[in-house]
Amino acid sequence: MPLILNKNEIESILSMKETIEIVEEAFKQFALKNTIMPLRTCLNIEQFNGQFLSMPAYIGGNMNSLGLKVVTVYKQNPIKYELPTIIATIQLHDPKTGELLALMDGTYITAMRTGAVVGVATKYLANKDSKIVGLFGAGVQGKSCVLAVKEVRNIELIKVYDLIPTKTKTFCEEIHKKTGIEAIPVNKPKEAVIGSDIIITATTSKNPVFNGEWLEKGVHINAIGSHTPEARELDEITIKKSKIVVDSKEATLKEAGDLIIPIKNGIISSNAIYAELGELIVGKKLGRESKDEITVFKSVGLAIQDISTAKLVYEKAVKENIGKTIEI
Hints:
By secondary structure, the chain is an alpha/beta fold. It has two domains: 3-110 and 304-325, ornithine cyclodeaminase, domain 1, CATH 3.30.1780; 121-301, Rossmann fold (3-Layer(aba) Sandwich). It is 38% helix and 24% strand. The chain is built from twelve helices and 16 strands.
């Protein structure tokens, strides 16, 4: 009988540190060609300004995980319905038999695995002495990214910009309470960029959120908000001057407007993508090679992140006797 796990139960057993570790291993298996992962299917529900996405994956090697995430992205949810922008459910199956092992909330896992991949990318691409983070987007994803970066770098200050000032203030208070790190709202995008060692964009914006001319030497950028061909958080100046690493070259060239738009405009070619994240993990390519280079990690989010994290959650829940089993 499958195990049912809700958000609170998952939150009680899943830490950011171990999520980073399991996501890094998933990307290692991806680089070693031990995964089966088709591009996600997306249904655009234009009447309600929403998207319905299906994301299956199998991870072999030492992970042996099989599952499916169904995720919806409705940008008007927070304002109109007091619901998260992203809502998800994950099915975990036994790869030997196909049996359904667990059905669990995927919204919290989505936030955690998104933060975790930012943590992994930051580990390989940000300068070791990075201390200041500039964050665009005071939402759930932004919070998980900050928590992940904190695990891999000694962060002392977080500057947060969001279009809703009251939301930014609350966000900063929560981050400081949770981490002890100083977090301050900023009033202009430029303030979040200047002086930052690491920049994170975790927004629903369809247009660039800052001017690439503001970027300083040595900065690392994690861009995780946009995941459709017509939307981008980074402008062409940023893309042109950066070493670009992606989660999946195939996926980003189909889904990431941050790359698709400048390629269509002749600013760069697809060859401008330096590496996939997994290639850095297995040592096929180097990460940061100098203190002054500007690096970008562009992620559209992969099913291997969800399924690897779900497998970890399932194993911990079984061990700790958490959740309920039901007969279907």
